[in-house]
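G.,

No rush on this.
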Amino acid sequence: MSDACIIGIGIHPFGRTDGVSGLGQGVMAVRQALDDAGIDWNDVQIAYGASEAAGNPDTMVEQLGFTGVQFTNVRNGCAAGGSALSCAQMAIRAGEADIALATGFDKHPRGAFDPQPAEYNLPAWYGEAGYMVTTQFFAMKIMRYMHLHGISRRTLGLVAQKAFRNGQHAPHAWRRQPVPLDTILDAPMVSDPYSKYMFCSPAEGGVALVLASEKKARELGKPAIRLKAAVMRTRPPGSFEVFAPSADIERGGSATQIAARDAFTAAGIAPDDIAVAQLQDTEAGAELMHMAENGFVTDGEQEEYLAQGWTDIDGRLPVNTDGGCLACGEPIGASGLRQVYENVVQLRGHGGARQVPGNPATAYSHVYGAPGVSAVTILER
């Protein structure tokens, strides 16, 4: 079975772009990715698109061209983009197509996300009692984790400080100014222990990735980035997830742990083999918890990792080299694909001031979505 290869990438800058629809931002990213791959829209044989709030991705054909291409819409929370990529990879590996597209975009209104109980099969009273306010859940979850594993609030601040430091070097990032640690720690509190700098913001943006079979990539003469694994998993019994905010005494792990395990098995490598990682960081504590759930550290080791700078661009395991969600914001449909876009940039050696040294050959991305789904991607040059 052939590997799927990423041969083209495109991105519309994240943040706020007045006058351009979310779908328009996605179309711009697709055109960039096609140009990067050296192909036309007519060459795309199958496509998968993700969007939460900006319309059906398949309607992009009105601007890209009516070719009759099979185009499937994917909606899977914050893991929608990663899920679209997983579908595109399966189409290539199954021999259904030689060239596939995975794209995602969104344009969220200003303010916090406003999830509705019915969307998650929950009763109306769940929202009336305030349990749909995700900032409160994530704050509660990290407080428990910090207590159990000796994580300090200062370490949360170091995560955010690193994000803004990295984001200043990423042209597609929204927040491109460094923020001092004291400013982060002393900023207005949103949900204890998180200040306003420790949460990402809903945003706008679009990303597109063109995939090809190994044979087609060679025919096109493109330097291929191999997609060694693209795995999406749902939560097991007893997991502690947003919109399921209770912890069983007997826990069955998490969707992230399952997705990470299966991705490493599919790729035939281990966490120690990864040179750069993009991890879901909708809030500062998420990056810390996901470092452990993805197998890169044991619970509690994050305190030393951040203090020693081991997740910096020149560190032992660079994490979120473009600033992650904290610096880029989160347009839900595009966010997981942004991580993979950034990893392709790193493996091509095109990161500029944010480039990981040492000519990295492997890259990992992880995205988490409500009510407990995770997508993991492993790339290899």
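When you get to it, here's the other one too:
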Amino acid sequence: MGFGEGTKWVTEPDTYVCKLTKETQEVAKEELREDESRRNTALEQMRDYIMRNERIENCRLDAQFLLRFLRVKKFSVPMSQEAVERYLLLRQVYHPAFNNLDINEPNMDELLSLGYIFAAPGRDANGRRVIINRPGVFDPYKYTNVDMCKIHGIAYETLMEDEENQVRGFSHFADGAGVGFPHITLFTPREAVRIVKNGERTIPMRHKEVVGINVPKKLQYVLDFGMSLVSDKIKKRVTLYENLEEAISKGMDTSMLPKEYGGKMPMKEMIELWRKEVMDARPTLLRNDKMKVRINMYSEKAREGAVSALKQGLGCGDLNSGDSTIHGLSGSFRKLEVD
């Protein structure tokens, strides 16, 4: 494959037909500056950038994919162009964790059945999907850090395919019960920093609210470290409660949560509905593996996912075509044996 004319892209340019509800179109206009004229112009500029960029070997060119970047960057085309390229590089640098996002793999199916991460059906009062994460059910002696990244990738990629989600954003609910030191040491501090920094900067999701309960007091220092890594914008959207009872007493809306957390639908039913959703998205997620960049055309720091490279951008100054060695965390993902 090559860039420019003659390349067979993962998906070809299509004619966009807006399927957003009228209410969501208003949100998109007010919060993201999106209207038909700006959208059409931005999509044309995004496609031209990708097709002319010799660093990008293959990519999706359909509007649904490109709009996730334009929307998260509020239709700043230069920022969206950099974001899509960073996303492609991230997938390649962290290859074991962000490729072959197959829910049919035994470990992925098991984590889904356990309810490690899933999205509740329907939408909350703000039109958002609610993502539920229960890290304590993740067995750090059985599963690897790659498994953890992949099951998150399956959830996020599935949800990002929906345009309503791209505009409305997401609410998160996490239950820290059962989390211990072995969970924390699945990643080294350096890996944690790079994953969090690259994730927030690169994964095109609008995180609107984060609620957490049952954070183990003995791991408060870990939470403090994690909070130090995220942007001030995200910090302001995080609310933590000692337990479910405190959260409910202080007005947390439980209507979208499983029955076990004060909602109406049993968790098992939610998980089965989510299973159907991710199964429907499976062909798209596997097809995304065809997207690639020419890894040797990026600086060593960019290939390693270094935070300094995030700040520097992906301009020509980052090119280092004389060094074709692939660096990055892909070589360091491993199963840790923790006493």
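The beta strands are 56-58, 117-119, 129-133, 170-175, 207-213, 238-241, 292-293. Residues 31 and 45 are 21 Å apart (CA to CA).

Enjoy the weekend,
O.
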